Amino acid sequence: MKAIVQTTEGDPAALELQEVPKPTLQPGEVLVKVAASGVNRADLTQAEGNYPPPKGASDILGLECAGEIADAGDTNREVGEKVGALLVGGGYAEYVAVPEGQLLPIPEGFSFAETAAVIETACTVWSNIVMEVGLSKGETILIHGGGGGIGLMAIQIAKAIGATVAVTAGSAEKLEVCKSYGADILINYKEQDFAEELKNQCDVILDIVGGPYLKKNMFALAKGGRMITIGLQGGNKAEINMGVMMMKDISLHGTTLRRRSPEVKAEIVRQTVKNVWPMLEDGRVKNHIHETLPLADAAKALNHLVESSHTGKVVLVQ
Amino acid sequence: MKAIVQTTEGDPAALELQEVPKPTLQPGEVLVKVAASGVNRADLTQAEGNYPPPKGASDILGLECAGEIADAGDTNREVGEKVGALLVGGGYAEYVAVPEGQLLPIPEGFSFAETAAVIETACTVWSNIVMEVGLSKGETILIHGGGGGIGLMAIQIAKAIGATVAVTAGSAEKLEVCKSYGADILINYKEQDFAEELKNQCDVILDIVGGPYLKKNMFALAKGGRMITIGLQGGNKAEINMGVMMMKDISLHGTTLRRRSPEVKAEIVRQTVKNVWPMLEDGRVKNHIHETLPLADAAKALNHLVESSHTGKVVLVQ
Ligand SMILES: NC(=O)c1ccc[n+]([C@@H]2O[C@H](COP(=O)([O-])OP(=O)(O)OC[C@H]3O[C@@H](n4cnc5c(N)ncnc54)[C@H](OP(=O)(O)O)[C@@H]3O)[C@@H](O)[C@H]2O)c1
Ligand SMILES: NC(=O)c1ccc[n+]([C@@H]2O[C@H](COP(=O)([O-])OP(=O)(O)OC[C@H]3O[C@@H](n4cnc5c(N)ncnc54)[C@H](OP(=O)(O)O)[C@@H]3O)[C@@H](O)[C@H]2O)c1
């Protein structure tokens, strides 16, 4: 089969479409013929050599896709069934092996590209802001990086839950897009200090920056607030004052969807389909695809993330 | 009325029984004539000048008591009713004003002294290991300071829930007491490295040490583990590696019972009475009173905590 192969280690520009062996199925897996693959920042981090795939996972990039079942393996699925899939890797390819629990239905009216653009973000956002830290109606959430793939999904899910949504982004253009998807409070992090603007006000913070924001995030958290860190774009180390945690009754959480067990992933997929798929189907949550490119242009796709020139999602199609 | 007054600021030995004004009742409060007061490490920290009472609270020491209602204020309580009370302060006195939501019944068969010895620890342990981080059957919990007031209560509640219990303490004698209350894994922190012993094994950690233990605690946490910090006996600052939080899907929590709102306190009291009082009444959770002293000997009582010469609780009676 054809797949994206990295020809120079650590260089995200050195990606070529090449011939590689088709994956073989493990018990409980199906083979999906990929029609579209979503691009995630983790793909870039992996291509840069900073995020090795978990043991046993494919070293081909790609954490989500949509397509048709080509081989149902030992499952009761039908060959030809159209599906989406949450992947541990391997999505930038013609075929990928997927544990059955990580298959998702195509939302009504969605194309393959539109489906591939929502799986990783919907599962990440739902599992974190709801399952992990219980965002609820009337609460305030701060979403860092509101204009990214995760950001635009998080804004819309949080609004659907009934929360007040604050976002940070690095440009007026991205903030305008955030606003059009429902964000209530817009903060340009290059010009404003979000911690001063939101002091003691945030019940939940969805953090993608890590170390350099820890102190400010704790300052912005309200009493009883919860922060969930899913990205470390600024680095992983920080000094922490545990007294602030105690005085404010706050909690700090960290998760990586990719490293969760297949059982936990299956439960996350189940809850996401149950709760977010209806939001996609009735229009409460909308796709925002920045650009659709052929699979062979994977390097060009990742370059959007290098330059942060995109808003929402980039998708590769075959 | 008589109450313990500090005659030299910052000196926990300078405590005298003196005449002071009786508290006046706020709406929703009752006046309790104190028969017994529990001694907590927070009393010592406050007497040392390091833990100022929250705004509006009495500056008399004492976070829990048992006695009789002397004035029901605007509530429907009866004068003469025997009660326990969770206090924001003021327990080392003849009378104390208590919001009705912070009253607890006397567990069947318990004396005033026995009641005063369990309120703060039961409410703290239940609200943290169950309400905050959801310890459940079959999980492993590490309890730091197993031989203290909080420690012995936590061991027994965790065993009643069906957890495996590991404890740290600084002497073989304290570890023996922990064992007699149900602890399964005994670690002398002066001789052993708890993090090596329990690497990746703890679903929950009840932490009272803070900064110096953070890295080790994170090492000891299992995937999906939760740490709840309620004391900072070693200090409040630490370096944190947020990458570890993400890779292990862990969460770090901090709370202070004393600084929670009256509404939250009332809910904690309600849940503690519902869940822990039956354990006290059927013997699953037992009192361990190290010494009972007259109220006038408050300084002597606090000195046990200075020297850590006690196991379990010290109680002051009138
Ligand atoms: N742990 C998990 O399970 C998991 C799952 C999925 C994604 N993630 C992580 O989530 C993050 C977002 O992923 P993504 O795919 O949505 O990437 P993305 O599309 O590149 O979005 C990231 C956004 O963050 C903004 N940003 C960068 N630095 C910022 C700062 N200091 N403050 C505020 N915003 C900042 C960027 O735009 P501007 O700077 O131009 O505003 C960009 O819009 C990544 O770190 C990714 O690794 C984690
Ligand atoms: N946040 C809240 O809401 C809340 C409520 C109640 C209590 N607390 C806190 O909880 C802690 C315990 O309170 P307590 O009243 O039970 O005090 P305690 O009776 O003095 O117990 C503390 C125990 O910790 C042990 N210890 C000291 N350093 C240790 C270390 N490095 N590693 C392991 N054990 C160590 C001590 O014994 P050895 O060192 O001799 O073994 C002692 O048995 C205190 O910090 C208190 O302030 C917090």
From TrEMBL, chains A, B:
<keyword id="KW-0521">NADP</keyword>
<dbReference type="InterPro" id="IPR014189">
    <property type="entry name" value="Quinone_OxRdtase_PIG3"/>
</dbReference>
<keyword id="KW-0560">Oxidoreductase</keyword>
<dbReference type="InterPro" id="IPR020843">
    <property type="entry name" value="ER"/>
</dbReference>
<dbReference type="InterPro" id="IPR013149">
    <property type="entry name" value="ADH-like_C"/>
</dbReference>
<dbReference type="GO" id="GO:0070402">
    <property type="term" value="F:NADPH binding"/>
</dbReference>
<dbReference type="Pfam" id="PF00107">
    <property type="entry name" value="ADH_zinc_N"/>
</dbReference>
<dbReference type="InterPro" id="IPR011032">
    <property type="entry name" value="GroES-like_sf"/>
</dbReference>
<dbReference type="InterPro" id="IPR002364">
    <property type="entry name" value="Quin_OxRdtase/zeta-crystal_CS"/>
</dbReference>
<dbReference type="GO" id="GO:0016651">
    <property type="term" value="F:oxidoreductase activity, acting on NAD(P)H"/>
</dbReference>
<dbReference type="GO" id="GO:0008270">
    <property type="term" value="F:zinc ion binding"/>
</dbReference>
<dbReference type="InterPro" id="IPR036291">
    <property type="entry name" value="NAD(P)-bd_dom_sf"/>
</dbReference>
<protein>
    <submittedName>
        <fullName>NAD(P)H-quinone oxidoreductase</fullName>
    </submittedName>
</protein>
<dbReference type="Pfam" id="PF08240">
    <property type="entry name" value="ADH_N"/>
</dbReference>
<feature type="domain" description="Enoyl reductase (ER)">
    <location>
        <begin position="10"/>
        <end position="316"/>
    </location>
</feature>
<dbReference type="InterPro" id="IPR013154">
    <property type="entry name" value="ADH-like_N"/>
</dbReference>
